[in-house]
Design brief:
CATH topology of the largest domain: Peroxisomal Thiolase, Chain A, domain 1
Family: Belongs to the thiolase-like superfamily. Beta-ketoacyl-ACP synthases family.
Helix content: 25-40%
Largest sheet: 11 strands, mixed
Protein name: 3-oxoacyl-ACP synthase
InterPro entries: Beta-ketoacyl_synthase (IPR000794), Ketoacyl_synth_C (IPR014031), Ketoacyl_synth_N (IPR014030), PKS_Beta-ketoAc_synthase_dom (IPR020841), Thiolase-like (IPR016039)
Distance between the termini: 9 Å
Order of helices and strands: EHEHEHHEHHHEHEHEHEHEHEHHEEEEE
Keywords: Transferase
Strand order of the largest sheet: 5-4-6-7-1-8-15-14-9-10-12
GO molecular function: 3-oxoacyl-[acyl-carrier-protein] synthase activity
Number of helices: 14
Number of domains: 2
CATH architecture of the largest domain: 3-Layer(aba) Sandwich
Radius of gyration: 20 Å
Strand content: 15-25%
Shape: globular
């Protein structure tokens, strides 16, 4: 089997996946939760205690950070860094990445985050704002946006490119795509790539609520995230991290790695239209999808299903449906949206959804969209509702669209 694609670039294998997400703390748990279309949104006591207008979110279920971190490390880092480190460790374990065979200078970390260490900055300002010299000594390292990526590089001794991407809700997808580019063009042999965010805080939740971006279903949180539904009223905030080990295909095969699939296409662009609203006709997002397909050397007919960004907001879902409709010339493949289960993990969402979309593509199963039965967009795209859809194992197109008009799309293909 060729180690290079039709354009002569190195193929990019996915050999490890690690997740810490509301849907579960392993890819297997998350896959089952997505197939069950089981919403994870629930009331968060601290939000109610602080009089935040929206009092629910999707949180990562409890796990044991002590299995990954020393007490000293745990004290020094923000929650987003903790989630990213733990997911990265799981990905490395899953890949069975042999330290003696990895060239540190040829191995990098590419991580996306939309919020970064802002939660630690918020907490520090609230607790110590009146007494600046009482600030914890680790305040700056905890709040630096690049801390998660740098901590991962330090943990594993990876000395190649270590880059942090902040493209709002597209950050995790951007990081995966840029990591794949670096491997394709010979800049890296291996990369730990993905996204992470932990935005369930007073200021961030209140800020989103003031924008009228969040669902207000405080009395029925499990029904709140409903992508493309006729009665959607905003997104639900979630937290989490997802990291993948990406390797040059020939090197992965040579070491006998188990290959989950590959990243075959990537594209990004910008609406250049509005800071929080997408271009209504979806034309720029559609161009991004077409570019990702072209990068993969595929036609729209080759795609088995689409993992939509699907935030559960009126404008974003409407624009994305129009974009998919245009990209596929009215012949939409099955479309799902995983945020019905996990809410919106901001910078972590694209990476988690890409990882699970690849799993779904390999299994030939497309999860139903949680909480969605009827949709005004049903005439434009083939939304999967009610029960999972069985499809042929085939490449999947995974979309992420962020504030600022930041669009990023990946094509992921099952191993063959």
């Amino acid at each position: 089997m060729s180690a290079r694609d039709a354009q002569g670039r190195f193929r990019v294998a996915v050999t490890g996946i690690g997740v810490k997400s509301p849907a579960g703390n392993t890819p297997e748990e998350a896959f089952r939760t997505f197939l069950a279309a089981m919403s994870t949104a629930a009331a968060v006591d601290r939000l109610a205690a602080e009089s935040v207008p929206v009092r629910f979110a999707c949180l990562v279920p409890p796990f044991e950070p002590e299995a990954y971190l020393t007490r000293r490390e745990a004290r020094q880092i923000d929650r987003v860094t903790m989630l990213a480190l733990c997911a990265a460790a799981d990905a490395v374990t899953d890949a069975r990445l042999p330290g003696d065979l990895v060239a540190p200078e040829r191995t990098g970390v590419q991580l996306g985050t939309g919020i970064g260490g802002l939660p630690s900055m918020e907490a520090t300002a609230l607790d110590h704002g009146g007494f600046p010299m009482g600030m914890p000594v680790h305040t700056v390292p905890r709040t630096m946006t690049n801390s998660p990526a740098c901590r991962i590089a330090m943990r594993f001794g990876f000395r190649g490119s270590c880059t942090t991407y902040a493209t709002a809700c597209a950050s995790g997808t951007t990081a995966l795509g840029e990591a794949a580019r670096k491997i394709r063009h010979g800049e890296l042999d291996v990369a730990l790539a993905g996204g992470a965010d932990a935005p369930v805080t007073t200021v961030i939740m209140s800020g989103f609520a003031r924008m009228r971006a969040l669902s207000l279903r405080n009395e029925e949180p499990r029904l709140a995230s409903r992508p493309f539904a006729a009665d959607r009223d905003g997104f639900v905030v979630g937290e989490g991290a997802a990291l993948m080990v990406l390797e040059r295909w020939d090197l992965a095969v040579a070491r006998g790695a188990s290959i989950h699939g590959e990243i075959t296409g990537y594209a990004d662009n910008c609406d250049a239209f509005h800071i929080v609203a997408p271009h209504r006709d979806g034309s720029v997002a559609a161009a991004c999808m077409r570019s990702a397909l072209a990068d993969a050397g595929l036609s729209p007919a080759d795609i088995g299903h689409v993992n939509a960004h699907g935030t559960s907001t009126l404008l974003n879902d409407r624009a994305e449906a129009a974009a998919i409709h245009h990209c596929f010339a009215g012949q939409s493949p099955p479309v799902t949206a995983l945020k019905g289960v996990t809410g919106h993990l901001i910078g972590g969402s694209g990476a988690l959804e890409a990882a699970l979309a690849l799993r779904c593509a390999a299994a030939g199963l497309v999860p139903a969209i949680a909480n969605t039965r009827t949709s005004p967009e049903a005439g434009l795209v083939d939304l999967v509702t009610g029960a999972p859809r069985t499809v042929r194992p085939a490449p999947v197109l995974s979309n992420s669209f962020g504030f600022g008009g930041q669009n990023a799309c990946l094509v992921l293909s099952p191993a063959h």
